[in-house]
Specification:
By secondary structure, the chain is an all-alpha fold. It contains 4 helices and no strands. It has helices at 8-20, 30-40, 45-56, 59-70. α1 packs across α2 (30-40).
């Protein structure tokens, strides 16, 4: 799912939801399952925050590029 351009707190919350199993568990949600597997690799809250900080540096250009790949 596209995360670039979102606030850090939102990205942390979404990664935590994937990591905790609140998201990405539905059988037809292939991207959610990928995110859940990736988020499971993050060991602690600091790593979640670090990834969110990195994603926040990607900005809207990364979002547009991701959108083009989906089309």
């Amino acid at each position: 799912p596209p995360l670039a351009g979102h606030d850090d707190w939102y990205v942390v919350a979404q990664l935590a939801a994937f990591r905790g199993g609140a998201r990405g568990t539905h059988a037809s949600d292939a991207r959610g399952q990928q995110m859940r597997a990736a988020a499971a690799l993050l060991a602690d809250a600091q790593q979640l925050a670090d990834v969110a900080t990195y994603i926040s540096t990607l900005g809207d250009d990364a979002e547009r590029a991701a959108s083009r790949r989906r089309d």
